[in-house]
Amino acid sequence: MVTRDSISDYLVRGRLADIDPDVADLIRHETARQARYLIMVPSESTVPEAVREALSSAFHNIYAEGYPLESTRNLSEEDILDYGARLSEYRRLSNERYYKGAEYADIVEELARRRGAEVFAANSLKPEQLYVNVQPLSGAPANNAVYTALLQVGDTVMGMDLVQGGHLTHGSPVNRSGKFFNIVSYGITADGEIDYDQMYALAQEHKPKMIIGGYSSFPYQADWAKYREIADSVGAYLLADIAHVAGLVAADAYPSPVGIADVVTFTTHKTLNGPRGAMIITHRKDLIAKIDRGVFPGEQGGPHINQMTALCVALKIAKTEKFRELQHQTVANAVRLAEKLAARGLKIAYGGTNTHLFNVDLTGITGADGTSLSGESAAVLLDLVGVVANRQTIPGDTSPLRPNGIRLGTPWITQRGFGLAEIDALGDIIADLLLAAQPYSLHGRRRPLAKAKVPFEVLQDCRTRVRDLAASVGIDTPVDAEGYPHFAYADIEPNNTPLTLNIKGNQAGLFLHYALTSDVLSLQTGDTQATALHKPDGERISLGTVNKLRDDEYVLTLNENGGHAATWLRSLSDGYVLADADDPAARLPGPVTVYITGEAQLQTVDQAEAVTIGKSYFIGQKYILDGDSLPMFAWQDPQSENLLTTELHNLHNKLGAKMVPFAGYDMPVWYSSVTDEHLAVRTRAGIFDVTHMGVFDFKGAGAAEFLDAVTTNDVIGLAVGSSHYTYFLDVNGVPLDDLMIYRLADEHFLVVVNASNNDKNWAWLTAIKSGAVCIDAAYPAHTLRTDFEMRDLRATTSGDDQRVDVALQGPTSRDILLNMAANDVDKAKIQAMEWANVAHVTLDGFDLIISRTGYTGERIAFELFVHPAQASALFERLMTLGAVPCGLASRDSLRTEAGLPLYGHELAGPLTLDPADAGFATYVKLWKPFFIGKAAHIQRNSQRDAEIMRFKLENKRGRPPHQGDPIVDDKGRVVGIVTSCSIDSEGYQLGQVYLKQDYAQEGVRLGIFAGAERTKPLQLDGVTLGKKLSVPEAVVILSRFPKRKK
Questions:
Q1: Half-sphere exposure of residue 239, counting CA atoms within 13 Å on the CB side?
Q2: Same domain, yes or no, for 457 and 504?
Q3: Taking the CB of residue 817, how many other CB atoms lie within 10 A of it?
Q4: pLDDT at 1017
Q5: Across the chain, which distance is largest between two alpha carbons, in Å?
Q6: Which of 31, 52, 63, 595 is labelled catalytic?
Q7: Which of 241, 708, 897, 984 is labelled catalytic?
Q8: Is the separation of the CB atoms in 477 and 34 below 8 Å?
Q9: Are 272 and 245 in contact (CB under 8 A)?
Q10: Domain with 1043 in it: what CATH number?
Q11: CATH code, 381
């Protein structure tokens, strides 16, 4: 309680800055952003100070559910403000609200309704003939209230397609309107105009109860008379949603639907420059009661009286000549900017505009890999230089999630005083930035992910020009702006004296390791080393030193160009500037913060000491380092007629397994039958001998960086206790093998490779470690660090550390392991294991490294790494607990059914397939600055027109297909080549096929010539009656992967 002047209360007094300085700072920073940036989101505007003042008034404190007296609708403004009349009326008649104390709230709402009617009266209607509701909290509630008022759930509604410019509430399937009503969407013509003919035809076919006119991104004026004609032809209500153009309508800069449409809705915070809210207007007396009830209580509870108060002010401003001039200049500016960008070579969707907004079609801006600039990338780039826009679908787009355009609007910048000269300057900035963009794609799970970067110099130049342009026009919210991290500009940072920079972040060490020339990752806390910073072309920015304060914080001291260096490092952290001109996908880890902390003493730094030979990557590396070109790796598989055996060979024979040669080993193909073993894994648990697989051990400070460079996945980002799938590629991008990497500790990794490639992989890795082979075509002298130990854990030289792999797969496999756990700690480890986790446990006396991974498609699956001497005993123990021994045949059928690749079939092999061909491109991290084979992989995939898919024979008794068999379309054209095939869980032949992308859709039916290698050519002109000809078996294309089990 506060006691003041003998009065005690609990009121909180004081300035915001005193009570909550943190929120005060947030507000100040946002206010500064709006002043420094040029905001071009068409649905945003700056609200006049008087409107903001009204919005924060005491009216904020009260509830007023309900409405004023109906009899007050047609009062003039003078009568509404007759306090004597209104207050005496209130005391005698009260109102239609649930709360008392609303006498002044009534006056506010009456005033807002009257002023709204006066501003929007049009088409020969007078204000007194309009019925206005000012309570909706925003545009979506306003539209939903109209649905509630006029329709029944399930009624048919016509609205513009969201992708072509409509709004969420016009029937988008993700919105309530699309869920509760039968939506029929109309669109635009090939010429970019609203297709009124299509709209009419759809209306005649579907007989909608309501037609919605209005849109959020279509740039031309509506023909309300045509809308009315079409609605009348089927007896439909016409709803005009003019949310975006309400201000233009009020100023006669856009045709008004008032009096033409049955109902008009619009937001008050876009071009009307008012508070966040909405209005509903109708000239139909028979609808207003329904609409009022649709708003309250149908859609919302208490209205925001403070918002209505601010709306009163905005509507008064809307009646001024200055407001009228603003709206017409807004349109003129939009027209001029569209023309300017078109003249600079950018494509304007729909051909232009005659409103406050337009859309830029970005599909003409393409990168080296054929990727076009996405709307999201363009919007981010613009935001980084201070131009705020939004991504936007354009004609030809198929999803609102992947737009290929941006939407630009001129309301806010026109409010600030932009004329044609400023528009031209802005147009040049936008064009300079977007035309300099280099789009590229990263591999995504479902589809490529479009990204883009620009040269550092272009980004900084555009950012400075935007700042200067914004400072040259008006602002009514002046506030001091702070520097970095809020606002940073290259031209104001100091460069003439040595500077100290502080770099901080979870990945600060790795970030600096790739940005600087020295071996930052080798630094211990407190250590300092000489270093240098370069541009992508190899030009040196500065020499200096780097000091490690702790794992997430470093101090970089630079002799020169410290301000430029800080700006360069900040931009690298943001991730939208080119770190390598030849590889736009290359991205440094981050983010980090980069602060200039003060001046420093000039240091003596030896250039040679500043550069570490053997780093996998640093910016400018290929231009700075030279050396003799290294030879290409060559490998010839050794020839031997003697089959190797695994530690389980005697046990297989004891169990009566059918043995066959595989990968140089005598291996079990089945114990009972492929079907029985296949189903055992799908319903219970199966155990596989995979002890022939190679198991390598990497340990040491340089292990992570080495493995990251020689494989395609993100080894450095792999968490301790986790594993991932990845690939060895050669310099030409051809897979040498697919493999698993398990991170046992920060500097300790387990690597499991295919048995058939074990010796080749060991030779490849050994040659790289010794610096004996070429790993980078662009920098043939490139070598990697060697400060780690590499061991073959199957070799007897590894002693007690030896490990081989036994796979336990299937729904009951975890239960089997839990039965073997002798203590709660190991049980807890097993229970807690998620997919790809790895742990060290002791089960029934067996010392095991276990991972939750596998090659069967089962999500409950484990691989057990055991000493070879214990492998047979472990296998037998698992059998006694219910695991069914399974051979190679079921291993192949299970992985084929799951869509998993096999080296030599879906990888490499006769078709030389790579991970992207196989459908596993997400395991190739193109954003990594370097890995062996990256450039060749990107080049190959820019030309790829086929991919691996699964297929199934429709006839259970059909001849089994084999690798190399052709798949044909209905015209006999070969559109696919079989890579694998086996039996599935239902007894059908299911396989994988390298298939042309035009046919790579689930449900496509094709034909297959099974057993093609055994089919003899036949001259058809010599056939006789009864001669048997080969015909293709019917196949259906399946999804790339089976639906995951719940």
A1: 31
A2: no
A3: 26
A4: 59
A5: 120
A6: 63
A7: 241
A8: yes
A9: no
A10: 2.40.30.110
A11: 3.90.1150.10
**Per-residue pLDDT, 5:** 65
Concatenated DSSP letters of 171-231: T-TTSHHHHHSEEEEE-B-TTSSB-HHHHHHHHHHH--SEEEE--SS--S---HHHHHHHH
174 and 226 inside one domain: yes
- The dihedrals phi and psi of 811, each to the nearest 5 degrees, come to -60, -30
267 is catalytic: yes
Q: Is 331:354 a contact under the CB 8 Å cutoff? A: yes
Q: Write out the two tokens for 505.
A: 């972040």
Burial 200-215 (b: 16+ CB within 10 A, else e): bebbeebebbbbbbbb
Q: Indicate if 451 belongs to the active site.
A: no
User: What is the total count of domains within the chain?
Assistant: 6
594 in Cβ contact with 501 (< 8 Å): yes
Q: Please confirm, yes or no, whether 738 is among the known catalytic residues.
A: no
Residue in 617, 604, 586 with CA at minimum distance from that of residue 521: 617
Q: Annotate 938-982 with DSSP letters as a single string.
A: HHHHTT--EEEEEEEESSTTSPPP-TT-EEE-TTS-EEEEEEEEE
Gap between the Cα atoms of 471 and 539, Å rounded: 34
- C-alpha closest to that of 222 among 251, 188, 272: 188
Rg (the chain; Cα; Å): 35
- Please check whether residue 68 lies inside any domain of the structure: no
pLDDT at 733: 95
Catalytic residue among 276, 293, 959, 996: 276
CA nearest to 150, candidates 366, 2, 341, 295? 295
Q: How far, CA to CA in Å, does 155 sit from each of 72, 146, 160, 237?
A: 34, 13, 17, 12
- 408 and 363 fall within a common domain: yes
User: Out of 270, 336, 794, 934, which one is annotated catalytic?
Assistant: 270
Q: Is residue 986 among the annotated active site residues?
A: no
In the chain, which residues have pLDDT < 70? Answer: 1-5, 1012-1022, 1045-1046
Give the single-character DSSP code of 137: S
Q: What is the pLDDT of residue 186?
A: 94
Separation between Cα atoms, residue 313 and residue 500, nearest integer Å: 52
Structure tokens at 368: 């080296």
241 is catalytic: yes
> Which residue in 156, 267, 414, 691 is the catalytic one?
267
Cα gap 561→498, rounded to integer Å: 8
- 276 belongs to the catalytic site: yes
Identify whether 69 is part of a domain.
no
DSSP sequence for 827-839: HHHHHH--TTBEE
| Domain annotation covers residue 92 | yes
Distance CA 608, CA 786 (A): 19
Over residues 228-238, the pLDDT tens digits come to 999 999 999 99
Residues in the chain: 1046
Q: Of the candidates 410, 442, 471, which is a domain's last residue?
A: 471
The Cα–Cα gap between 813 and 825 comes to: 18
pLDDT value of residue 238 = 98
Which of the residues 65, 666, 844, 876 is marked catalytic? 65
Looking at the structure, do residues 878 and 729 belong to the same domain, yes or no?
yes
HSE, CB side, 13 Å, CA atoms: give it for residue 925.
Answer: 22
User: What backbone torsions phi and psi does residue 10 show, to the nearest 5 degrees?
Assistant: -115, 15
CA-based end-to-end distance of the chain: 58
Quote the domain boundaries for residue 981: 945-1046
Other beta carbons within 10 angstroms of residue 334's beta carbon come to 27
